[in-house]
Amino acid sequence: MKKFKLTLGWQIFAGLILGIILGLIFYKNATAITAMQSIGTMFIRLIQMIVVPIVVSCLTVGIANIGDIHKLGRIGGKTILYFEIMTTIAIILGLVVGNVFHPGDFINVHSLHATDITQYMATAKSANHTGIWGTLIGLIPVNVFNSISNGDMMPIIVFSVFFGLGTAAIGEKGKVIVDFLQAVSQVMFKITGWIMKLSPIGVCALIGVTLAELGVSALAPLSYFVLLTYLTMAIFVMVVMGLAARLFGFKITTLLHVIRDEAVLAFSTASSEAALPRNIDKMTKFGVSSSIVSFVIPTGYTFNLDGSAIYQSLAALFLAQAYGVHLSIGQQLTLLVALMITSKGMAGVPGASFVVLLATVSTVGIPVSGLTFIAGIDRFIDMARTAVNVIGNSLATVIIGKSEKEFDHDKEAKYLKSLNIDK
Question: What transmembrane ranges does the database entry give (predicted)?
Answer without folding.
Answer: 7-27, 47-67, 79-101, 153-171, 191-212, 224-245, 286-303, 323-342, 354-377
